[in-house]
What we know:
The structure holds 3 protein chains of 3 kinds. By secondary structure, chain A is α/β, with parallel strands linked by helices. Chain A has 11 helices and 8 strands. Chain A has a single domain, classed as Thiamin diphosphate (ThDP)-binding fold, Pyr/PP domains (Rossmann fold), CATH 3.40.50.970. Chain A has an 8-stranded mixed beta sheet with strand order 2-1-3-4-6-5-7-8, with helices on both faces. In chain A, helix 1 crosses helix 7 and helix 3 packs parallel to helix 5 (141-150). Chain A is globular and about 70 Å long. The termini of chain A are far apart. Chain B is an alpha/beta fold. Chain B has 3 domains: 2-243, Rossmann fold (3-Layer(aba) Sandwich); 251-377, Rossmann fold; 382-412. In chain B, helix 1 crosses helix 2, helix 1 packs parallel to helix 7 (139-156) and helix 3 packs parallel to helix 5 (88-97). The longest helix of chain B has 30 residues, at 214-243. Chain C contains 6 helices and 6 strands, in the order βαββββαβαααα. In chain C, helix 2 (107-112) links the parallel strand 5 (92-96) and strand 6 (118-121). Chains in contact: A-B, B-C. At the B-C interface, strand 1, strand 8 and helix 10 of B face helix 1 and strand 2 of C. Strand 2 (94-96) of chain A pairs parallel with strand 9 (204-205) of chain B, so a sheet runs across the interface. Chain A: Keywords: Oxidoreductase, Pyruvate.
Amino acid sequence: MSEHQIKFYQTGTFTVGNRLLDPSQRSGQANIERFNSLNSGHRACQGCGEALGARYTVDAAMKATDGNLIAANATGCLEVFSTPYPETSWQLPWFHSLFGNTAAVGTGMAAAMRVKAKKNGGPLVRVLAQGGDGGTTDIGFGCLSGMFERNDDVLYVCYDNEGYMNTGVQRSSATPPAVRTATTQIVGSHPGNAFGQGKEVPLIAMAHGIPYVATASIADLRDLERKVKKAMTFHGARYIHVLVPCPLGWGAASKDTVKLARLAQESGLFPVFEAEYGEITNVTKIRKLAPVEDYMKLQKRYAHLFGPKADQSALIRIKAIAERNIRRFGLLGDERSEPMPPAVQADERADRL
Amino acid sequence: MLKQIQGSQGVAQAIALCRPEVICAYPISPQTHIVEALGALTGSGKLEDCEFINVESEFAAMSVAIGSSVAGARSYTATASQGLLFMAEAVYNASGLGLPIVMTVASRSIGAPINIWNDHSDSLSQRDSGWLQIFAEDNQEAVDMHIQAFKIAEELSIPIMVCMDGFVLTHAYERMDIPTQEQVDAYLPPYDPRQKLDVNHPVSIGAMVGPEAFTEVRYLFHHHTIEALQAIEKASEDFEKAFGRKSGGLLSPYKIEGADTIVLALGSVIGTIKDTIDEMEKEGKKVGLIGIKSYRPFPDKQLAELLKGAKKVVVIDRALQVGIGGVVTDDVIRATRKMDLDIFSVIAGLGGRPITKKGLKDVFNKAMNGELEELYFLDLDKEVVEKQLKREKEDRHTGPLAEAVVRDSVSIHKGGI
Amino acid sequence: MFQIRLHGRGGQGVVTSAEMLSIAAFTEGHYAQAFPSFGSERTGAPVVAFARVHNEPIRLREPIMEPDAVLIQDRTLLESVNVFGGLTPNGYVLINSSHSVEELGLEDLAAKLPKGHLITLPATEYAMKHIKRPLPGAAMLAGFAALTGKLKLESIQEAFKTKYKGKVAEANGLVAADAYHFVLEAKKKMKEA
């Protein structure tokens, strides 16, 4: 009798639980020994994608570094809901800097830790810098690029909810075209956000040639954990861009957060991939392409694109974006990616450790 | 060891002796030679256990320093002028967090109009930022003050700016006594942070503080900044014991005994004023000087005490509160508000205009003769000013102001040194 | 206090000359200060640098308005810049030129100053001879030393050794020696005349 490997696909919720997976494949969150770096009691909205993403990300980074990790955090939702004065929900050393300097603060932390490790011995304490799309793609962009260019030993994670949510849902350079925000309202001949050229920070990160770049979503948390773990095996500049739907800002039901993240990926609007030193190494394939409308209809921020008065051209252009992504990244396909072996580290400051 | 070197080089050597752990820098005239020298010292390995990071902006420079300082490392950066403004958000962030970063400000004017030369607009623009600010009179004092700065800042957990006049000090060759590593090690212990990011004792730093507690946090900061007055004096006294010379401190009086007219000034102009005073003394005219070494915190009580015997105070102010008068003058007025003094605000040396003995003598004489206005612009070219004012009255489209003034300035006064 | 003002054009090493002068004075145990005029310097544009030498700490920071000596590294400046402005009555002038004082039209100035205080020196020639580049700094400083007696030739040569290594330092040393002896000779001739 031949063996036949059964592939499990997620459909909505976890129909296959941890118990059928090899322990090495299980989520860090399933472990009673998990770090709980972002502890319960924080003030995130019901259904907050960022809280989910951050919890998995930071715990995965803590696990990968055996707890030798410190974090720098930009101003934004994550910082605000995780440290409501006078409490904090962080259980690792955590520092809130400013809005636009998180990458640079991470650089400074990494340099200090390198000197301390050299002087005092002991394991090198690693650095995680994190922020939302506003703090990363807009105001923090200069510092981000500087950190990339110097190949500083920092893992930067951007939690992208496509707008300045903390301050009331204003538009950022990560806000998709046509979307309604407080500063791109449904008025005029072209309601919602303008159709600009977009700013694909993961591709820009790749253009810097840094050791590791990945996109991820909270619809596939195992994948996110794997990518964080993998990132921590590198030394040098690393960037992970996580799509984290914001029910409040997107006008969606709080129960739909994970579904939205999945539909964003399966429609082609949010490509999920990995790259090393500027070359793509892995793409998460779309087994069954989801219509862009299915994704958009769950969100009030797209409501003006539907109905009798809607401008059809916007929807057509958005579909074209999805199609372009599919073409560019080769997103359609049947295979599920095999767990990637840990990458071979290039010469990133190995001699300076 | 005595050396005849450029001021910047001396300062770089002094900083290196303080065993910094992270140095980050973005170049801006006239600070460049300091950071270049430090880059060479770290790159060659002469300065060990120190990371030197070339950052992409001044905002990044202060941010990197914040990151390294909060991680427990002794951190240093340097800037001037536009760069200081560009990092202003982070400057306030550093002091609000209580991170004892040491920063050299190579005092330079702020544009527009763009001007690379020395005045005090940049450093004084940050007078409310919560950083301590000390001003060096000459390059020896610049060397000494940097060493004292690390000690003061780390003791109080307050960041400190060491202000030295750009070009006038940074680019001047003069004799400096550079201490030995042993001397500095004995004076300055390793940095022991009050707070730091430590995996063995995790804390969250930098959280929001609401109306319920913000005032108390700021009050404590206010309290410690006042304590800095003692710390600065003590650091100077300890320095004198350890290195055998007087430098730093709060105020430096010169021939004030019996002087009715006393001049106040910060920075390198103090030297020129001393020569001027000595010359006037030979002519039978008695003028005193108090060099202000600590600008923030401003030594109100100590200054009032020294001015007890004076009748007239002439403040040589190298920064202008536009529409109002000198910056330092306001501090002097506040410090002496219960005293009966005539205080004169002399705006001098803006944008690097040389302050000469001749010009100073003229101002001091005018003050003593009761001929000096309360607000006086030293060496102001009235002809150029009148010409522009007339032009503006007669015509709406007068074009860029600065360009017109420069044109007139050159055409009216051709050549000259 | 002795104040020296150096004139030249950007790229001729005027600022370095002032710095070398201060180092030379330092090696002889004096206090010395050197700094450039802080104009926008471009290659070819007029440049001024200042040096002060004193046996007490120097506190003055203003540009030198009343120099005791003026060193002019580029003769063409005579036509465009007021290089002699403020020169003290017993001041010294050293001009880099192979022309005579008369050929430069400076007889009036020479008459006002004490005999032997205004000398022209072919500094660039010496520089080209030994360094092969038109950097007359060492010659000007050595000429200054000989002209005023304020510094020793060896101090000038030592100063250049602190900044330059090996052959370059040696070459500058030779330039200095040539210039020093030229000026000593010239002074002697003028005094005898």
